[in-house]
Amino acid sequence: MLGPGDRDDDIALLAARFDGIAPSDVAYWYLEPEDAAPGRARRLARRALSRWGLDDLADEVELLVSEVVTNAVRYAERPVTLRLLRTDVLRCEVGDDSPQLPRQRRARETDEGGRGLFLVNRLARRWGATRLSTGKVVWFEMAARPQ
Questions:
Q1: CA distances from 53 to 1, 42, 44, 95, 136 (A)
Q2: What pLDDT, on a 0 to 100 scale, did the predictor assign at position 118?
Q3: Rounded CA gap, 96 and 21, in Å?
Q4: How far is CA 132 from CA 65, 95, 96, 99, in A?
Q5: Which of 3, 5, 83, 98 falls 20 to 30 Å from 20 in CA-CA distance?
């Protein structure tokens, strides 16, 4: 109810404008779910960061991209997506067709794996996972510090 009385013709309008992200600030790739995918993802991410003048982030981003892509290809049956977005932060999104969301756990001394999300949690500004109708997207953000 927006006003007094018994009126059913009151209307509220909310307008918002979002110009989106410039295409030059988005990098997007499909990766086959194979053992070579994490290495390819690292190289692609490094090239995009270099193009954007974010070379100082390359080592950390490569490590985190490698961890997230490795998890994705382990469970994916279809191509994995890798997307980098440069706004006020650098956001990395890795999508796959597995609906199971990742969870951070503490690896035992004898475990060979299980430390990837621990690294993501430590090095990224923020991270999370979103379930989609076709699988999920795991994302992380880094402070974008241009050189």
A1: 52, 16, 14, 25, 29
A2: 80
A3: 23
A4: 20, 9, 10, 7
A5: 98
Sign for the pseudo-dihedral over CA of 70, 67, 95, 56: negative
Q: Give the three-class secondary structure for 10.
A: coil
pLDDT < 50: residue spans in the chain: 1, 111, 147
pLDDT tens figures, 101-132: 876 666 555 545 556 788 898 899 999 999 99
Q: Do residues 93 and 83 touch, judged by C-beta distance below 8 A?
A: yes
Q: Looking at the chain, list the stretches that DSSP marks H as alpha helix, in order from N- to C-terminal side.
A: 37-51, 58-75, 116-123
